[in-house]
């Protein structure tokens, strides 16, 4: 799951202009032979079994102002924060939203869900 998601770093493989983090996770899940979870970030709260801590390859469901955000856990940094590959993300000096891999505060994560 992680290696498939990493192939898209710096791009927008969904072709959508807004609210596409869930669509990105859904696309990667399907490409790796798993059941998709839909386009809505908060919908992943009910996607699969939850785990208490970040697990590489799990799906992180996070909060954001006005809704949710989701991505795939690719690691854990030295401060214990998950490193997430997610779509529809700002950063790295770009003015476009794209797939990025970056640490996220663990306090922002609502749940970690194992893919089916």
Query: What's the count of strands?
Result: 6
Unreliable residue stretches: none
Biggest sheet statistics:
6 strands, antiparallel
Number of helices: 2
What topology, given as strand order, has the largest sheet?
A: 1-6-2-3-4-5
Secondary-structure element order, N to C: HHEEEEEE
How far the N terminus sits from the C terminus, by CA atoms, comes to 12 Å
Structural description of this entry:
- With 116 residues, this protein is mainly β.
- 14% of the residues lie in helices and 37% in strands.
- A 6-stranded antiparallel beta sheet has the order 1-6-2-3-4-5.
- β3 and β4 form a beta hairpin.
- The longest helix is centred in the first third of the chain and has 11 residues.
Short description:
The chain contains 2 helices and 6 strands, in the order H-H-E-E-E-E-E-E.
Feature tags:
116 residues, mainly beta, 2 helices
What secondary-structure arrangement, pairings included, does this model have?
Blueprint: H1 2-6, H2 21-31, E1 50-51, E2 59-64, E3 67-76, E4 82-91, E5 94-103, E6 109-113
Antiparallel strand pairs: 1-6, 2-3, 2-6, 3-4, 4-5
